[in-house]
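Need a sequence for this fold. Nothing fancy.
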């Protein structure tokens, strides 16, 4: 596989109507100033992937400098408990370069045991690399950011990828790419902070608990922005973070975006029939009739846990899932006492089965401030539309009047 860099200028192409007017000349911002070491910029204009043996580009300096943590930590914390004051931040080209226990400790501290997120574990993310799903050849070049103290203890990690496309993200920015191309600029490559192919909300900046946790968080955010400038890519995108993380990023120079998914919420139902009693009579009747049709066809439905699934089950899985998975997932969640089922975006038919719209979040950083302003204007309009749609869908939902669904 080879990576080819290229420049392109298309002065006569049509402007994107999706985002409105852009200035004809855009200034490039420089990397932020701070207490960290300076970085030297080099430019990547585009990435093209081809299945031929070729000379690999030289590996660039992947150090993002050092950050000095100030202050003595929270009141009541002894000097022995306080974190070291110097943090070095660097980039690794594979999650396999990070010990699994260190990565998972950051994940556990970031989520807490009650909200443990398996998709942020070292095991899940490394499987995407080892199976060839999230690798350079598929347009997902790992560029994970690691923060270490003076004793080489890992204090924070960020799952990050240099991408040559927008597939597998589920927060759609194709119109932004079109707008860049319309003005002779390159949108790809870009930096993408996410769990590949997995639109599940969770923290994206994973920090160990400690006296200087907030400062380590700020250091990693600065490092992400500096890497964007160092690589001279168009932008940095963080998708499906938690709402609390999303709220912090506006003051750090990121644009905020909202989206919508359909989730089912468990209100401590004892069984599936109890869940149905929360629905309007017509919706409840429809679901019961659907379930009777399965019995009438002499079909047996059996739920398997992960370790019970064999190859033959996967072979036949897709044939059945579209018509059966939504109700069966709810029934399984009730039996297993799970808080919710996330059915993803798209498909208003999910509402009639009890999956209600919820807000999702992303935040975005652009080097080109002309494009940033135009995209921000679009996001203001989009956000108001998303809020309105969610409100209307809840008002016309399948649950009885007076039942809190927001």
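Here you go.
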């Amino acid at each position: 596989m080879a990576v080819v860099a290229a420049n392109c200028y298309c002065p006569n192409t049509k402007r994107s109507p999706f985002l409105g007017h852009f200035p004809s000349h855009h200034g490039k911002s420089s990397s932020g100033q701070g207490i960290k070491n300076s970085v030297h910029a080099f430019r990547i204009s585009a990435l093209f992937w081809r299945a031929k043996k070729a000379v690999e580009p030289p590996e660039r300096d992947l150090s993002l400098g050092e950050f000095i943590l100030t202050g003595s930590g929270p009141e009541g914390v002894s000097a022995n408990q306080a974190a070291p004051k110097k943090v070095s931040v660097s980039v690794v080209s594979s999650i396999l370069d990070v010990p699994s226990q260190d990565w998972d400790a950051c994940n556990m501290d970031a989520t807490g045991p009650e909200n443990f997120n398996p998709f942020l574990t070292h095991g899940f993310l490394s499987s995407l690399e080892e199976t060839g799903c999230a690798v350079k050849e598929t347009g997902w070049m790992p560029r994970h950011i690691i923060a270490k103290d003076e004793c080489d203890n890992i204090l924070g990690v960020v799952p990050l990828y240099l991408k040559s496309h927008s597939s597998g993200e589920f927060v759609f920015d194709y119109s932004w790419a079109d707008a860049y191309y319309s003005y002779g600029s390159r949108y790809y490559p870009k930096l993408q902070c996410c769990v590949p192919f997995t639109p599940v909300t969770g923290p994206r900046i994973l920090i160990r608990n400690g006296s200087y946790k907030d400062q380590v968080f700020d250091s990693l955010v600065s490092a992400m922005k500096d890497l964007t400038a160092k690589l001279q890519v168009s932008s940095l995108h963080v998708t499906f973070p938690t709402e609390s993380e999303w709220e912090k990023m506006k003051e750090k120079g990121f644009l905020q975006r909202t989206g919508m998914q359909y989730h089912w919420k468990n209100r401590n139902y004892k069984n599936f029939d109890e869940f149905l009693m929360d629905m309007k009579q017509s919706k409840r009747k429809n679901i019961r009739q659907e379930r009777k049709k399965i019995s009438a066809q002499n079909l047996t439905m059996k739920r398997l846990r992960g370790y019970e699934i064999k190859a033959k089950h996967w072979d036949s899985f897709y044939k059945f899932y579209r018509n059966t998975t939504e109700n069966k997932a709810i029934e399984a969640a009730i039996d297993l006492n799970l808080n919710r089922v996330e059915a993803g975006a798209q498909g208003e038919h999910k509402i009639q089965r009890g999956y209600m719209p919820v807000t999702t979040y992303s935040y975005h950083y652009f080097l080109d401030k002309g494009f940033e302003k135009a995209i921000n204007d679009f996001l203001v309009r989009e956000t108001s539309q998303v809020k309105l749609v969610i409100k209307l869908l809840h008002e016309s939902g399948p649950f009885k009047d007076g039942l809190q669904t927001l």
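For context: DSSP finds nine helices and 14 strands in the chain.
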